[in-house]
């Protein structure tokens, strides 16, 4: 029977067979959960009962009327600020280490190493660094006579999110640097040399020649940073449990709490879809700004 098929038909069947397994897995583990999440967002369900009650848009009303949820969401923007600083520092180090600096490969490895460390290990390591009683940071501040700066880093509502944001900068800045380094090395050296021959300073070369040629990569890094900061969960969950008094709660920790502590999977699903909508809106604004600046 196969011999009676044309080459084009055999090729089509072969492509379908190769795609059948990945498309099936995609449907089972991505598309189906997404559709089921939308379905749950309109239901009232405790996660255990086989019966689900139709709630309509009541779950979304509960989300938008809950001040605690949006107060927690405001904490995500602290991480976003640290994420933007992380991108700026990654770009700065990439520019420095793309030059003929002696030992630049060693510096690259040192700066990239935090990224390959396990996230849980990083969290527990900084738990000792920021510990108010025996932490290395407060011990150092006491040793140099800056006792007034030695505070409870995870116990102060005004400081806790910045302490956690610093940890994200320390861990992910090296990844941004490596991505920017790869982009810098793809910029044609001829146009940089041409700009310098025309009298452009190093800053002018970076501003008007190098950065415009890296705009797609900058956009990608900002895309990853925004998604990561708006969906931050592991650090506040492991280090502070949302404390003190909810000062380090994020939108995602409140979502998990709503689902697994209060057993309200309907509202938790609505919160998840609301977060997705906000991510799409913010990314659209970011894309418009970067494209406008790139032009």
TrEMBL record:
Signal peptide: none
Name this protein carries in UniProt: Sugar ABC transporter permease
Domain ABC transmembrane type-1: 72-286
Transmembrane stretches, start-end: 12-39, 77-97, 109-130, 163-183, 220-239, 265-285
Any one GO CC term of the record: plasma membrane
Primary subcellular site in the record, as a coarse category: membrane
Organism: Cohnella endophytica
Subcellular localization, as worded in the UniProt entry: Cell membrane
Pfam families: BPD_transp_1 (PF00528)
Taxonomic placement: Bacteria, Bacillati, Bacillota, Bacilli, Bacillales
Superkingdom in the source lineage: Bacteria
Family: Belongs to the binding-protein-dependent transport system permease family.
UniProt keyword terms in alphabetical order: Cell membrane, Membrane, Transmembrane, Transmembrane helix, Transport
Membrane topology annotation: Multi-pass membrane protein
One Gene Ontology biological process: transmembrane transport
